[in-house]
Write a structure and sequence with these properties.
Immunoglobulin-like; 6-stranded antiparallel beta sheet; 657 residues; 37 strands; 5 domains; 8-stranded mixed beta sheet; alpha+beta
């Protein structure tokens, strides 16, 4: 029995010892022969648990956290009050964002805690390493983390439909089904670049691929102020950056339902909160566009036929793709003034414009049926290839373009060509519209000449003048022509005075379309040096113009235009309107002669009176001088007698003679 009790006690003792050892190993034991703090003793390393941060200079970071962990990377609580962690690095540190320490700071770990928090800032830009290490000598493994100070905004770009010029809103098969009937959809290709990232500062694997940064942002909108546009749920707000909008969000970007020029705007933001400038791209939306056909363009100079009626010669530095769309109607809202169109509209775009060496030779072929439908009787009237200028929102003719009225291709009557220095929507046409005839045509009669003036015509390239002597009996009198005047005035010289002339002016545009003639008559007059009965009595002038009257008047007449009463004017012949003083009130010839005689007698009487007055006045002036001389002699004589008398009186007083 004793042996049995002994064996039982032995087993209990061994169990107790084992349990104590287990509790000791777990930190709960009551045996502590070394006196060390059990929890603190298990701490093996320091770990940054907050994410890598990007901040602007002199701006405090968000909270940075460092934890104490054991070898199993599990947070380990400190159970003492005298443990510290030292944070060091280039920059400033603070625990309250009020008091800042330069380069280093010691931070207490509170009893029962397993982490510390602090903040960082720096006045300089760059990549900075922050280190956390134990203050007192311990075998804790120190740790470090980079922080980026960045004041530089990112840059980027946007391209709609691979830089295409025109879209029908359903150009790409991969998303055409997503485009609703009333909204046109396109795809967006975007790029992002940041100077700080380009220095390979992000060596950590989770930040190696810049295109997948969840902290790169972009904002998209169809509005220039970057607000929500009402067509896209993602518009007007910061979303994760992607280089391919459709691939990332599985949706096209909607550009609206109204046809015309469409603009999409984008702005980028980096991790530090720096916002880029706003970038944009434009595309022309037309429902009349076909889905573009694609042609591979090879390096070198090669000829291509992207569609049957178009031939192109392209010099490329590398392989790329050519896209061609054809339109059944004018894809723009702007007509080509004065141009008769063949109904051909095209758009060309290149996947990578940098690989194309402009200029590109383009030929667009036409058929005789197309000329007939457009009522173009002479194919030489085709001026070449027109392009749509998005800047002025108008059609313009390429600078180097023309027409060939014979064809080098079966089934066609000829072709128009252009050396294109850029690609925008294109078309062909003939200018068969004449400019308006010149208005406000005036003639000023002079001695042996007539000065002509008229208002400028907007689309006139030059003006032609014709003139001849007026005829009253439909006799044939040939015209003299003065061609290609660029100013809106001229003077016709070497004319006969007293002979009425008919003058005409017409406008001619750059395509030799000619307006009707505006017509006027005028009679050159010789300037007289003496007054005549006619020159003071008659003036010719047009309605609504005022002229100064002088002793010698010139004759001036004008074509009656829409600003004047035109009830009696026919379209066949312009009416010449003249008005003057009523000659029935002129004095009779006898009355005029009597007036002249009276004037002449009056002049003679005045002359005689002036002569007599002058003579007697002169005599009177001479008589006045003689009287003055006699008076002076008399005064001298009297003075001499008085002096003599005074002297006699004096001598007599002195008794002298």
């Amino acid at each position: 029995m004793i042996n049995s009790l002994f064996n039982t006690s032995k087993k209990w003792f061994l169990a107790t010892i084992i349990a104590a050892l287990l509790m000791q190993s777990s930190g709960l034991g009551f045996l502590n022969v070394t006196g060390a703090k059990a929890a603190t003793a298990n701490i093996a390393k320091l770990v940054f648990t907050s994410s890598v941060q990007y901040i602007k200079s002199d701006t405090a970071s968000t909270k940075i956290t460092v934890e104490t962990r054991n070898n199993s990377n599990i947070a380990e609580t400190v159970d003492t009050d005298d443990e510290k962690i030292t944070i060091s690095g280039t920059g400033q540190f603070s625990v309250d964002q009020t008091n800042w320490n330069d380069s280093t700071i010691d931070i207490d770990i509170n009893n029962g805690s397993n982490s510390i928090d602090f903040y960082y800032k720096n006045t300089k830009e760059g990549k900075f390493n922050i280190t956390a290490s134990p203050k007192s000598p311990k075998e804790w493994i120190a740790n470090s983390q980079y922080i980026y100070v960045d004041n530089t905004a990112p840059t980027g770009s946007i391209a709609i439909n691979n830089n295409a010029d025109v879209t029908n809103g359903k150009d790409y098969d991969q998303y055409s089904a997503d485009c609703t009937d009333n909204l046109a959809g396109v795809n967006l290709t975007l790029s992002y670049s940041d100077d700080l990232l380009s220095e390979n500062t992000l060596s950590q694997s989770q930040y190696a691929d810049q295109t997948n940064f969840s902290t790169h942002y972009m904002k998209l909108s169809n509005k220039a102020d970057m607000s929500a546009d009402g067509s896209n749920d993602n518009s007007g707000k910061w979303i994760a950056y992607t280089s391919d909008y459709y691939a990332k969000y599985n949706l096209p970007w909607y550009i609206g339902s109204d046809e015309g020029i469409k603009t999409v705007y984008v702005q980028f933001k980096d991790e530090a909160g720096n916002e880029s400038a706003i970038y944009s791209d434009q595309i022309f939306y037309s429902v009349y566009s076909t889905i573009p056909g694609s042609t591979v363009v090879l390096a070198g100079t090669n000829s291509y036929n992207p569609v049957s009626e178009v031939s192109m010669e392209i010099n490329a530095s590398g392989t790329t793709s050519l896209f061609v769309s054809r339109y059944t109607q004018n894809p723009t809202s702007e007509d080509i003034d004065g141009i008769t169109n063949l109904g051909k509209y095209f758009d060309f775009s290149i996947a990578d414009d940098s690989k194309i060496n402009f200029t590109v030779m383009i030929k667009i072929y036409y058929t005789q049926a197309e000329l007939d439908n457009a009522k173009i009787t002479d194919p030489a009237d085709l001026k070449g290839i027109y392009y749509f200028d998005f800047g002025s929102n108008s059609w313009k003719l390429y600078a180097n373009t023309g027409v060939v009225t014979t064809s080098d291709k079966d089934g066609y009557a000829g072709y128009v060509w252009a050396n294109a220095d850029h690609f925008t929507p294109m078309t062909t046409g003939a200018d068969v519209t004449a400019p308006e005839k010149p208005y406000n045509f005036k003639a000023e009669a002079k001695d042996g000449s007539v000065k002509l003036t008229w208002d400028k015509v907007t689309d006139a390239d030059h003006y032609d003048i014709r003139y001849r002597k007026s005829t009253d009996n439909n006799e044939s009198v040939s015209y003299t022509y003065v061609a290609r005047l660029t100013d809106n005035n001229t003077e016709i010289i070497n004319l006969e005075n007293g002979v009425e002339y008919e003058f005409g002016v017409r406008a001619v545009d750059e395509y030799d379309n000619m307006s009707d003639y505006s017509v006027i008559v005028s009679t050159p007059v010789k300037t007289e040096s003496t007054v005549s009965s006619k020159t003071t009595a008659t003036t010719y002038y047009a309605y609504y113009y005022n002229y100064d009257y002088s002793d010698t008047q010139t004759e001036e007449t004008e074509v009656k235009d829409e600003n004047v009463n035109t009830d009696n004017i026919t379209e066949e012949e312009p009416e010449i309107i003249t008005e003057g003083l009523d000659n029935t009130n002129e004095p009779e010839e006898g009355q005029t002669q009597g007036a002249r005689t009276a004037v002449t007698l009056g002049i003679i009487i005045i002359a005689i009176g002036a002569a007599l007055g002058g003579y007697y006045g002169y005599q009177w002036w001479l008589g006045t001088d003689e009287e003055e001389d006699d008076e002076e002699e008399e005064n001298k004589s009297n003075k001499s007698a008085n002096n003599k008398e005074q002297k006699n009186k004096k001598n007599k007083a002195n008794r002298r003679w």
